[in-house]
Amino acid sequence: MTPASAPADSGAPHRFPVVVVGAGPAGLTVGNILRAASVDCLVLETEAREFIEQRPRAGVIEEWAVRGLEKRGLAGNLLDRAELHTACEFRFDGERYRFPYGELTGSHHFVYPQPLLVTDLVREYADVRGGHIRFGVRDVRIHDLGTDRPWVSYTCPETGERQVVHCDFVAGCDGARGVSRASLPPERVRIARHDYGIGWLALLAEAPPSADCVLFGCHARGFAGQMPRSPEVTRYYLQCPPGDDVENWPHERVWSELRERLGAAGVPPPAEGRLIEKRVLDMHDYVVEPMVHGRLFLAGDAAHLVAPIAAKGMNLALHDAFLLGDALVARLTSGDDSGLDGYAQACLRRVWDYQEFSQWLSEVYHGTAAGDPFRTGTTLARLRRLFTSPAAAAAFAEQYLGTAARY
C-alpha cells in the first residue's frame, strides 16, 4: 500500500503485532526496524504526510546515531547529503574561540534537518518496505494496557468511523501532548521537570551562515546561537524572556541583536535574510517515569524532553527507537524478553546523562546575562578553561558529541 494515495483503511488487517503511535523520528525508526524483520506494524499519525515532511525541527545528529541508522539501512540520503561539522566556536569578551572537537576525539556531528530525515524514513517505511500507516487520524485512544491483549482505536479521517486495532504491543512515540503519555495511570507517573526561567527566540532565516560551524555567543545582553542548516538557510537563537511575544522582535531588532551578541574582533556580521520562522521556546526539561506501563512503551518526547540547549532531543529519540525496535523484534521473532525488560533502564541512563550536560551548558550560555557579577565571573572562568585545560576540553567534547554515554 502507498499511504500517500490509498484510502486510510483500504483492506488493511485490523490486528498487528505492534501499533506505533506517532510518525516522528522515533516512531518511524521503530516501524522500519520492525518491517526489516518482517514484523507487521501499524503507524498512526494525526498530521498529514506533507506536514510532517516539512515541519521545522532539529538538525544536529550525533555520529553514533547516524551509524545506528546506517546499520539499519536508513541513512543512505543522510550520508550523501548531510554536512559534517568538526568544530564549534564560542564568542565571549569580544573574542572568538574555535573548539576543534573533531581533532580532539576523531568524531564529528552531522547536520541534516529533521524534515529531511522524516521524509527519508516515511519513504523507506511506507513506499519501500510496505509498512502500513494512517495519516490524519483523530481521537486516538489506547485500551487495556494492563492486559496481554491491548487495543487501539481511532477515527478514520475519510469516513468518520471508529476503527479498532488489536495488537500485542504499543509504541508511544507521539510527543509530550500525545495520547500515549496521557494513557499512563496518573497515580503511577512521576514527571521530573526543570524550568530554566529563560526563553529562546527560535529563528529560521533565508540567509547563508556567517561561519562554517555552530556559533555560541555568550553575551551580557543574552545568549545567541547560529546553527547552519544548509548553504541557504540558517537557524538562529536569541535569549529572551520566557513567554515573550514574537511581535516584540521585528526584523531590525533581530538582526541588531544577532550582530551584537555574535560579534567578535575580526569577524563579519551575520548575513541578513528573510525570517521564515519566528517562535519563542520556553526552556525546560522533563523526564517521565516509568517509560513502560504494561504493553505500552514510550519513546522520544513522549518520555522525555531535553531543551534545545545541547541539541540532544532527536538523538535521544533515535536512541530509544533503536533499543525499542530491536527489543520488539527479539520478543516477536524469538520470544526473547530481555530487551523489553531492560528497555527503560537503558534509555534513562542516557537521558539523565544528557539532561545533566544540558544544565551545565545552560550556565555557560546564559551566566553572563544573569546580571550577577559572581555568575558572570564563574561563567567566564568555565569558558576560558575549555581553551586552556586539555582535560576540560576532552570532557566537554565527549559530552557534546555524545561519545561519553556508551550504554
Care to describe what's here?
- The protein has 407 residues and is an alpha+beta fold.
- Helices cover 35% and strands 28% of the residues.
- The chain is built from 13 helices and 19 strands.
- It has helices at 25-36, 49-52, 63-71, 76-81, 101-105, 114-128, 179-182, 251-261, 313-334, 338-341, 343-366, 373-386, 390-401, and strands at residues 15-21, 41-45, 60-62, 83-85, 88-92, 95-99, 109-111, 132-135, 138-143, 151-155, 162-172, 190-206, 214-217, 224-228, 234-240, 274-289, 292-293, 296-298, 304-305.
- The strands form 3 sheets. Strands 1, 2, 8, 9, 10, 11, 17 and 18 form an 8-stranded mixed beta sheet that branches.
- It is globular and about 65 Å long.
- Mean pLDDT is 93; it is low at 1-12.
Q: What is the percentage of strand-forming residues? A: 25-35%
N-to-C span? 37 Å
Instruction: Give the low-pLDDT segments.
Output: 1-12
Largest sheet: 8 strands, mixed
What portion of residues is helical? Answer: 25-40%
Global outline: globular
Number of strands: 19
Radius of gyration: 22 Å
Mean pLDDT: 93
- Specify the structural class: alpha+beta
Q: Helical stretch count?
A: 13
List the main descriptive attributes of the protein structure presented here:
19 strands; disordered N terminus; eight-stranded mixed beta sheet; single chain; 407 residues; alpha+beta
